[in-house]
Amino acid sequence: MSVRYDEIGQRLRAFRLGSGMSADDIAKRIGISRTAVYRFEKGEVVKIETLSSLADLLGVSLPTLLGVEIEYISSAVTYFERLRQLEAVADRIIVLAGPISFLLASDEFRSSLRDLLRESIADNDEHKDKLLADIERIIEILEERRKNYEERRPAIVNLMSALDIERLLRSGFVGRPFVSDHDIRKRQQRAQSEVAHFARLMEEEPIGTQIGLVTGTLPHTGFQIFRSGDRKTLSVSPFRLGEQPNIKLGVAMITENEEAVSLHETVVDEMWRTALKGREAARYLRDLMASVGKNAN
């Protein structure tokens, strides 16, 4: 197996961001220069002994840092940075991460996301300060992801769950339980607006964007498949944005294992075959919005 130092550098950067350590911190801890850390992150050749020290410091295994078989990621910051890196070279992305796909979400959703994520952190959480700092890093990464998407416009296949969307419409965008009735109505209105945005996308069918609405059961864990030329990469993640977000706990996985990618592609093919699409899907969403809105009143 050939060593891809550029990809090792990408993983090193992602795990460093997830750790909250600066390049200076890393350099001082393992006895190298800050410049060397940045060079490694840009893909310069690095000795295996140094990589081992970096892996120990960052709390990951050496195989994960090297990208051997499966990367295991317990930090939401690291995970979203890895997504940014994969999207930067992907020519096709398959997304099952519902009910809202960030790359296709509205500007209103993006502008309200920081507050929603902050709301998901309990006031008495012993790690509150770190989690709030993580949110700021995540927002920066997400904005880079969106900018990259708008510049490159890779093809996207987005599978959405009708059941998840119905739950979103009923609960609204909430980050924690026990939101006041007044706030709930505002959150429900915001959810209605976002679902209407996706209904318009379904009707307009922009070039390179395919959205399928699955009315049956979807896997509970979101995943994405990135294709870049002949290479395919699978990411599986418990981290969520939007409705009932989770940036605190979970272990994501990233792999190029052919069997894992193929099995997930088979799942996608089956869901896509039965999914509603285009105007039919948009009508379903609008009917769902009307039904939930009527019951709420």
**Main pleated sheet:** 8 strands, mixed
Q: How many E-type strands?
A: 8
In the sheet with the most strands, the strands line up as: 1-7-6-5-2-3-4-8
- The portion of residues assigned to helices is 55-70%
Number of helices: 12
Q: What's the CATH architecture of the largest domain?
A: 2-Layer Sandwich
Give me the CATH fold name of the largest domain: Endonuclease, Chain A
**How far apart are the first and last residues' alpha carbons, in Å?**
61 Å
Shape: globular
Low-confidence stretches: none
Mean pLDDT: 91
Structural class: alpha+beta
SSE topology sketch:
Elements: H1 5-19, H2 23-30, H3 34-41, H4 48-58, H5 62-66, E1 70-73, H6 76-87, E2 92-96, H7 107-119, H8 128-152, E3 155-161, H9 162-171, H10 181-204, E4 209-214, E5 222-228, E6 231-237, E7 252-255, H11 258-274, E8 276-277, H12 278-296
Parallel strand pairs: 2-3, 3-4
Antiparallel strand pairs: 1-7, 2-5, 4-8, 5-6, 6-7
Helix pairs in contact: 1-6, 2-3, 6-8, 7-8, 9-10, 9-12, 10-12
